[in-house]
């Protein structure tokens, strides 16, 4: 499924923040909901679900610097991306924001909530990693990382091979795997490796502190899939410690990214858990 074109009722916009031009899409009406994409995302990552949520929210779908239509930044750090996310909220004049975040985007959302909780009324966290997955270490090795990303992640043969070991969204129609391939194709090698290096540096400084001390009373809806990655299961073990106001939505029908894998079911379950009527 290609989602490059604007869907009816959505607008493609940009905003300049801290030296970067951030591309985002906007749709709907109501209180603000901002979607944080993960490692291989872009403005279109939430496209399969945006119409249902746009019935209740004004949905903002930004792309991180170097992703989608957003320009890159000289130094991609988690701290810098958090500041850009905070400025995005401030410059658009938003308040009482619902943050919805998938994969490594969930780690960014949690850190944003730690630094700037006043902006956020609720988080919907989807399949969040326990900071730095062990299987990403090879993507830190200069030279080898670029080769691996190009041969394994930007080619269908590479994805077919990885699908033997990891839940890469494979179904009988092949739509989920195609979603994964499209995400990798649209993500530049430099941007993907910058994100990995940034998350590695951040996790070395913060992971132990999070496990020991992170506590938040912001209401959290945690969405967990079925067959998923080990580091996601590790994070799930701590969600009851991290969040004092927690509701869990289980989607055993899905794998790692239910937004793309089961969009209709995801929308229905999450909106119902948030207290909204679902058509």
Number of helices: 11
Under the CATH scheme, the architecture is 3-Layer(aba) Sandwich
Strand line-up of the largest beta sheet? 1-2-4-3-5-6-7-8
Termini separation (Å)?
Answer: 23 Å
Task: Tell me what the structure shows.
This protein has one domain: Alpha/Beta hydrolase fold, catalytic domain (Rossmann fold), CATH 3.40.50. 41% of the residues lie in helices and 19% in strands. The protein is built from eleven helices and eight strands. An eight-stranded mixed β-sheet has the order 1-2-4-3-5-6-7-8, sandwiched between helices. The model has no long low-confidence stretch (mean pLDDT 88).
Task: Give a quick summary of the entry.
The protein contains eleven helices and eight strands.
Secondary-structure map with pairings?
Elements: E1 10-17, E2 20-28, E3 32-36, H1 47-54, E4 58-62, H2 78-91, E5 97-102, H3 104-115, E6 120-126, H4 144-153, H5 156-162, H6 175-186, H7 189-213, E7 220-225, H8 230-236, H9 239-242, E8 246-251, H10 258-261, H11 263-273
Parallel strand pairs: 3-4, 3-5, 5-6, 6-7, 7-8
Antiparallel strand pairs: 1-2, 2-4
